[in-house]
Amino acid sequence: MARFSRFAIVGGMIVFLWSVRCAHATNACPASVPSGITNCYYIDYSSGSDSNTGADELHPWKHLPGMTGNQNGTNSGDGCTANCAANAPAAGNGYILKGGVTWPYTVFPLDWTWSGTGSTSTPGCTGSGCIYIGIDPNWFTGVVNAVIPSKDFGGCPATGVTATITGGGGSGAAATPVMLGGQTNFDVGGYLVAYYSLTSAGTGYTSNPTVTVSGAGCNNAQAVADIHRAIFDLGAGTFTWTPSQSQLDTVGVVAFNRSSNIVVDNLDIRNFAFNNSGGAQVPIFVQATEAPGVTFQNLYVHNWYTTQAKATPGSDGSLGLSFGYNSTVASGLAQNNWVGNGESAYACTVSGGQSQTVCGYGTLMNVNAGIGNPGEVLNNHLWFGNWMVRACPSLVSGNDIWGTLVSDNGGHTNNFYTGLCGTGSWTETIANNLLHDTDAGAMSFIEQGNGNTWYVFNNVMWKAYGGGTVWGIDEWFGAGPGTARIYFWNNTMYAENGKFSCVNLGGAGGPALYPQALNLWLYNNQCITDQTSASWLFINSGSNGVMPNTINGIVNPTSTTVANAANVVMSPATASIQGYTVANALQPQYGNSGTATFQGTNLTAATPGCGTAGLSALCQDVLGVTRSTTGAWQAGAYQYTGTIFSGPDSPFNLGNTAK
Question: Are strands 13-22 and 2-10 parallel, antiparallel or unpaired?
Fold first, then answer.
């Protein structure tokens, strides 16, 4: 950044007449934007004007193109006009919003309709054919915008938990943890932090300060502070949206539906209240549909809820972040996002005592890359919602998911719902994810079509409350050419609270399930359960009691014995002796002579195995520890090395690099 000054020499003295800070030349872009973005416009709601050129930080627009200012059919007069409205976003353009500035509900909906020209890679968008919407990390107000949960393994007390904010070059920021737990519909065994209430934004911050969370009994309660994101505040508490308006039903209040090849980055999108009495099936908060080549990254999406129960509930409920909902063309990338609804969860279960159908916490992050189009969901934090991923083929990896609950109309009771790819040769990989502290239904659920191939490995799961199992598998599309295959390897699961199995094949009473079209490979999984008669795999009567075609290559198996022999069922007492604790995300902290009992099959040379294209991450455990190429592998997601780990990062995927 340059500084230019005008001066005069008076009586031998240099007298400065004025000084101006100019961060960038005309339409120049900050170094932080993705490669290929070369022509940038600057936007600042606080000090900008749409009559400005928008060419630099000193002459910003007030609005982002696409901000309509048309709430529930009434125009507020606070939309994009003049030079902002005359601009036609195109490939290579960047739109830089000032960090820490708030765009109020009066500027929305945002209806972005412009596209780039292409991407150098898929999924998402890279290269000069993209359009970028985001921030410059060196252009911000210097206050703390939010304190965000980054990890929480539960166990905190109801009171006495504190968050201390230090460093970052500024002072005065303060936040209070708001606790959630002990509810009949969400029994976490102790309390989690629902959200952090920012009581003071402080001043003078030049970098993100450090947040230290303290509380007796807390297991890895952690948080991060943000000073960089631009804030889209949709007015909850002041304004209520009406989803009968088509903008919300089919498009979204922050919408990128009719565009492709764009990158949306570093936005804080918050406070969306909507009246759901009109019977709309899917009111949308943040949406990208029928939009190939879209990247959502580094977003913080939070606090959305209904103000009234649906008159005609649909199966999907309300969506907080929808990425290609029911799309057949999208190839999306969702990475490094923070999507949580702790504010609404707290208000419904503690403060308001409202019915489940009204609460906003039962919402979905729906990431559906469409039938036969690649999509990836990498390294996201998801909490207090109900998460659906439908990307075919896809990679779902490195995500930390906790505090999940049933959907707001009860239509979805599974907490991490993957599938609905349809019949076809699609491949999906679910690896290196952390899931814990969930409510009713299966903790994780696969709904697989005939001909699909799924790889599921290195996932760690515990505290699955309610009536469901840890992992459920349904085969919906029947027999036919190309039977379905699931390779389920090296997962660690803790089936607490009376659950008798870690994997349940077939939903109870479900329609037309066809496990006979399914081939299962189940190796090296670790199931910790308090049931003495537990079976690692359970074939549910709802699937008509029909066994899969094969289990671990055994054709027409007569029982699940073959699966139980290749995997470990362990009591909590034995797990404790081996050092598996929730506080350490079920990592083995030490071993004894019993460790050999839990040695698993080496899959290095297997077909498929960790040498197979696209499965190199299987050669490492969830922490990135290399598994042996010749010796036995440890059962579960961790390869024990005798080293006591300090605890995984969150998300802790080391097998994939964000694009």
Answer: antiparallel
β-bridge partners, 426: none
> In this structure, which amino acid lies at residue 502?
C
517: left (phi over 0), alpha (psi -120 to 50) or beta: alpha
DSSP-derived 3-state class of residue 582: helix
- SS3 of residue 573 by DSSP: helix
- pLDDT per residue over 412-443, tens digit each? 555 666 665 666 777 888 899 998 877 655 66
The bridge status of strand 319-323 relative to strand 146-151 is: unpaired
| Threshold 0.85, pTM exceeds | yes
Contact of 360 with 308, CB cutoff 8 Å: no
Helix (H, G, I), strand (E, B) or coil at 595: helix
Q: Exposed, middle or buried by CB within 10 Å (0-12, 13-18, 19+), for 563?
A: buried
Contact indicator for 561, 598 with CB cutoff of 8 Å:
no
Give the separation between CA 572 and CA 580, rounded to whole angstroms.
9
CA distance 314 to 1: 53
Q: Are strands 633-634 and 599-600 parallel, antiparallel or unpaired?
A: antiparallel
Separation CA 604–CA 615 (nearest Å)? 10
Q: Express each pLDDT in 463-477 by its tens digit.
A: 776 556 777 776 655
Structure tokens at 177: 């943890």
* CB within 8 Å of 226: residues ≥ 6 apart: 144, 145, 146, 147, 148, 208, 268, 300
Residue 532: exposure state from Cβ atoms within 10 A (0-12, 13-18, ≥19): exposed
Q: Are 261 and 125 in contact (CB under 8 A)?
A: yes
pLDDT at residue 372 greater than cutoff 70: no
- Other Cβ atoms within 10 Å of 503 Cβ, number: 30
Phi, psi of 116 (to 5 degrees): -80, -165
Query: Which of 481, 337, 350 is closest to 400 using CA atoms?
Result: 337
Nearest to 149 by CA among 172, 179, 104, 122: 179
Mean pLDDT of 612-633: 88
Contact between residue 346 and residue 307 where contact means Cβ atoms under 8 Å apart: no
H-state helical runs in 65-181 = 82-86
Which of the listed ranges 107-116, 412-421, 568-577 does the model predict with the highest average pLDDT? Answer: 107-116
Structure tokens at 189: 């065994």
Task: Determine the Cα–Cα distance for residues 193 and 172; give it in Å rounded to an integer.
Answer: 22
Mean pLDDT value of segment 367-391: 67
Q: Are 318 and 360 in contact (CB under 8 A)?
A: yes
pLDDT at 646: 44
Burial of 155 (0-12, 13-18, 19+ CB in 10 A): buried
What 3-state DSSP class applies to 577? helix
Q: Which residues of 509-527 are buried (b: 16+ CB within 10 A; e: fewer)?
A: ebeebbbbbbbbbbbbbbb
CA dihedral 229, 235, 240, 245 (to 10 degrees): -50
Q: What is the dihedral of CA 257, 263, 265, 268, to 10 degrees?
A: 0
d(CA 22, CA 437): 49
Distance of alpha carbon 181 from its chain centroid, rounded?
22
Q: Is 293 left (phi over 0), alpha (psi -120 to 50) or beta?
A: left
Q: Where are the domains of the chain?
A: 21-134, 146-226
Radius of gyration of the chain (CA): 26
